[in-house]
Amino acid sequence: MSDCCCGKDPEPEKSEAASSSCCGGGHAEDDGGSSCCDGDHNPDAEEGGACCGGGGKVDWLLWGSLALVAAGIAGHFIGAGPAWWQTFAHGSWELMTKAWWGILIGIAAVGILGQVPKEVVAKLLGKGGSIGGIVRATFAGTLLDLCNHGILMVGMQLYRKGASLGQVIAFLVSSPWNSLSLTLILIGLIGLKWTLAFIALSMVIGIISGRIADALVKRGALPSNPNTVEVGGDYRLRDGLGEVWGNIRPGSGNLGRMVRDGLSESRMILRWIFFGFAMAAAVRAFVPTDIFNQYFGPSLLGLLLTLAATTVIEVCSEGSSPIAADLLNRAGAPGNAFTFLMAGAATDYTEIMALRETTKSWKATLALPLITTPQVLVIAWLLNVYGG
Length: 388
Description:
The chain contains 18 helices and no strands. The chain folds into two domains: 1-57, no CATH class; 118-386, no CATH class. The protein has helices at residues 15-22, 43-46, 60-78, 83-113, 118-125, 131-143, 148-160, 165-174, 180-190, 192-219, 237-248, 254-286, 289-293, 300-312, 317-329, 334-347, 349-359, 362-386. It is globular.
């Protein structure tokens, strides 16, 4: 059987180099199958990417969604066409202007993480399935200054590097709007008290959700991460960090390799991000905003409608903050504001489909909304009743 993703058996002395080149750079052994040789983790392998011999299928979702968003951005500057098209065009431009930096930083972070050995990630995040590992992942998600689209790319790379399902869920749930810049924006919009309360509650949900997910994995109800690595007691983090520096320092083609790896590993996430942009712009174009504004009060119906809206509408973290502030200040519904910030991480189809493509398991994927959404709704209801 061929050992090379290009479909040839290389000469023995050239085997390692051929595999590295074919798969888009070295360190494939550290990536846990992030190369094109492994169809479980790389979209190029599934679709017959170029390094696997060409002749693959066109990724219609990626290129079609990107074309729609690009057309919308062009339409924003042209300014012609019917009202619905102008709304779609303006929405495409607004979403992209708010998210582009997070997407680029996310791609860069994925490229850098691609050069980090699994052992280093395991050492830094702690043991999967442990409370310490969940708490570390929660704090990492809370402190990392990225928008939800950048966080999503980083979270999927952490899974490929061996983080447990519970750690990934805790990371995603606690992180989408808790960046430093957005925290400062929220303080200005809703005040310090509510901002700190929302951050603390999001971390609590992240820790609880992560623990539940890892417990279900331990019981066999959810699949474990096949990329998990056990770190020996004699492993020295200093040596691993030295290897990381050797892989990312300037020179030796490191920059080009990180760029290639970042784009390749982010491709399956980007398809859903652009699809989400197109869907959100379409909703803005065809569903009047005042329909939502009428029903977002601090009632059970308003809470459920908020959940439905944040599930359907792809709102970048920068856009979610002022909307959440409006729900708190104008509608008098702090629980709805919390739901709008949190439920996007729990029910957003971009995250759900990205998890599905990364974990290859619908059980693992649906664990995210099924575990976290009930917690969000209970806390939101309590906030509406007692926090108004």
